[in-house]
Amino acid sequence: MKTLISEPEVNEAVCRMADEINGFYGDSPLTIVGVLTGSVVLLADLIRQMTMPLRVGVVQASSYRGATTRGPLVINSDLMPNIAKQDVLIVDDIFDTGHTMLELIDLMHKLAPISIRSAVLLQKTGQQQVELCPDFVGFEIPNEFVVGYGLDYQDQYRNLPYVAALESHDIGE
Ligand code: 5GP
Ligand code: MG
Q1: What pLDDT sits at residue 173?
Q2: Residue 86 is part of a domain; what is its CATH number?
Q3: How far apart are CA 76 and CA 70, in angstroms?
Q4: Alpha helices in 91-157 (DSSP H)
Q5: Which of 19, 96, 106, 170 is catalytic?
Q6: Atom of ligand 1 nearest to the CA of 103
Q7: Surface-to-core class of residue 74, CB atoms within 10 Å of its CB (0-12 exposed, 13-18 middle, 19+ buried)
Q8: Residue 107 confidence (pLDDT) above 80
Q9: Mean pLDDT over residues 2-21, rounded?
Q10: Model-level pTM?
């Protein structure tokens, strides 16, 4: 495993994202929707630096089935807060192809929010397959499978305070 983004670099990027988000929304109330499970670390760090009145909810989306290859996307919105007439900011760990974010936005649009924007810690360069860009991005990274700061490999490594790329000998597939 090799460190791609160190702990101080991650922390600095989260501060920068929070500044951008605070500047963008000002004092308007905001509903944050974190995408489980990968967003939990970013969510916790980001909301503590946000200055507007805010509500926090979660939705679950999973497309990986215990490996580094994608499976069908499954969304569980049972825990989602009421977002009608709210400005919504979706927070996720990483924007790869963009299909997860697109499907979440499509689903939430039906619930009549005022606006929906998205914030992700990481975006993989050149992997995007949808006509949608995340609004707030911490880092662009190369197309490697990464773990840490919420991101897992087979449910491990979410607790690392930095982002690391798995190497072939880390992947027991
Ligand atoms: P997308 O739908 O944009 O292709 O993928 C987004 C989801 O896939 C993210 O929420 C994340 O859960 C997962 N994902 C994409 N790339 C990686 C990666 O490099 N590492 C990990 N751990 N998860 C990833
Ligand atoms: Mg995810």
Answers
A1: 55
A2: 3.40.50.2020
A3: 17
A4: 99-109
A5: 96
A6: 2
A7: exposed
A8: yes
A9: 98
A10: 0.95
